[in-house]
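CORE FACILITY INTAKE
Project code: CF-77B
Contact: R.S. (postdoc)
Sample description: multi-component assembly, two entities in total
Requested service: structural model of the whole complex
Turnaround: standard
Below are the sequence entries exactly as provided by the requester. Do not edit them.
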Amino acid sequence: MTHFVGQLIFALLLGTAGFLFGKRILQIRRNINLGRDIDLSDRKSERWATMARVAMGQSKMVVRPVAGIMHIVIYAGFILINIEVLEILVDGLFGTHRVFAPFLGGLYGFLIGTFEWLALGVLVACVVFLVRRNILPIARFRSPEMKGWPKNDANIILAVEVLLMFAFLSMNAADSIAQARILEGVWTDAHHYINAGSFPVSQWLAPLYAGLSDAGIVAVERGAWWFHIVGILAFLVYVPYSKHFHIFLAFPNTWYSDLTPSGSLDNMASVKKEVDLMMSGDPFAAPAEPAGDVPAEPARFGAKDATDLTWKQLMEAYSCTECGRCTSVCPANATGKLLSPRKIMMDTRDRIEEIGKAKDASTDHPDTADGKTLLGDYISEEELWACTSCQACVDACPINISPMGIILDMRRSLIMEDSKAPEPITAMFNNVENNGAPWAFPAADRGKWTDELSSES
Amino acid sequence: MALTVPTLAEMNARGESTEVLFWVGCAGSFDDRAKRITKAIARILHAAEVPFAVLGAEESCTGDPAKRAGNEFLFQMQAAQNIAVLNGYGVKRIVTGCPHCFNTLKNEYPELGGEYEVLHHTQFIQQLINDGRLRISDGNPFKGRRITFHDPCYLGRGNGEYDAPRAALEALDADLVEMRRCKKNGLCCGAGGAQMFKDAEKGDREVNHERTDDVLASGAKVVATGCPFCNTMMTDGVKNAEREEDIDVKDIAELIAEAADLL
């Protein structure tokens, strides 16, 4: 009877977690799709290769070996230990215990042993990461944008991972004690503990629980089992609200990577249309409007709000895990300017979340304008004008996010929508327009150096 | 013999065509310091017997600083105008004296109708050395001197070219050293993204001063550059550190031209 109660509670928890996770995923998907459309379906084989190399192969993580290698341990642990979670799900739903053990035989012991080593690796890596974030003077974890929630978010995740791994190892330690007592014949009524697994790491925890009674062992084993799986389900619900969502989005985000050289900046198609018209020589030429169509509201030039960005840029915002490698290599940030590329990504996510929430709150009012914009209310002009477009942030991002792309799109909005530029930039524009050079020199003087060269040689 | 550089217009009038268009760029045309780099490139092309011409008064800003400052209209107007000129002359091959022009012509013009083979001058110089078309003199003044190369963002990170400029420098038989931040991790000089044309935003220090620290730490006596803007920024940085007496800032074209007895 108690069996079924456990199974029922388990199924209920699993269903609730699955529902909440799914609901949140749909919400994020909707938010990402609030961005402008962009076609990134070309060059598929290159995209698969990029995803395999950058996301699965973590090629850019290991550029910084300490963090990179420990991150790979956590990543491998996460993926492989999920095989164990599969067994936990089956056991939980059907009231079985270590259901895979009889099928896998010796392989089962090997797998459990591997998971234990990985669990230890994850535990150690998470503790080291906690130390790096909270004790060591690593500048990128102490930037202004990392105060408050972003700092807590990171610590919550790391602490939960430590606890989950500890629970996993405790569960195995208690199980191995139960198995030993049954083998010795001192415990005869514990039917469901079968002789399975190998416990290379958790055996070190066994002395901690060895003094407990049989009932105590069951309590530790079951308690750890429940803590482990409930913790994982809670984690599942938490992750899409957290910077930690990169564990899912890193894959699509790298698949949709910008495959052009990082020096290349997109040519705006909307501008090209107008320039073509102007260059065609007929000032009155205009593309024929299809009759009867209500002209769509013309898109803004550049990005003033998060919805002016492409869905890919919004996906990048949700993919960012705030590691700060971009900020740590930014020349503007390194010299004390206000710009932090990481903050650009965090602001973008916060703003599109805000827009999404407003939409959810007023389903019958499609117009959700709150008078706020990403540019102005979140990101200042001073930040934007500090960028040297050096692409160091783009290169440093372990999952190919481009903070620079957002910065330059916002400059486009400043210039082409609001005509707002620092005075010397306006002067530069005027010079280019009038003299074909950013300085006020006449075009006729361009060849002067050739005359000088002739007379010098 | 006086070294004369023809314009495409002049050649066209004579019914001649040429192998290479040397795209000088605005800094290389107007800035006195950068003009010395331009002249060095011209002397190298001449010495290697590369038939080349320039656009002269018909060259106009590629639009790079306008684009990166957010003025896409102005950029595309410039691009349309330049592409009309280049295509009008049937230009196939362009060598630029500036990585910003290089990047824009190479990556951003094709979609707008301007498709050319575009080379940065350090790439072209390296090819000339490789092909034996340029002889470095045995007694070149940079032999054994400690030289470091400052990667221009739009040549290095922007287009993945780290090797050609270094290979060209190797011909000098110098003591080449890398700065702490180099190649993919190279630190910007601070001029890109239209910063050259405005004051820096409020901060603790200038980017070029930060970069000069890397130069000083490397112990280099020559900073080799491949961009007229980097050249200006690094020259200012070295001056600010009061080291202009013992540290030279020179473009790779200048170093090679001097080492090949062309200056």
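Facility notes:
- Chain B has two domains: 8-126, 139-251.
- Strands of chain B lie at 20-23, 52-53, 93-96, 117-120, 146-149, 175-177, 222-225, 248-251.
Invoice: internal transfer
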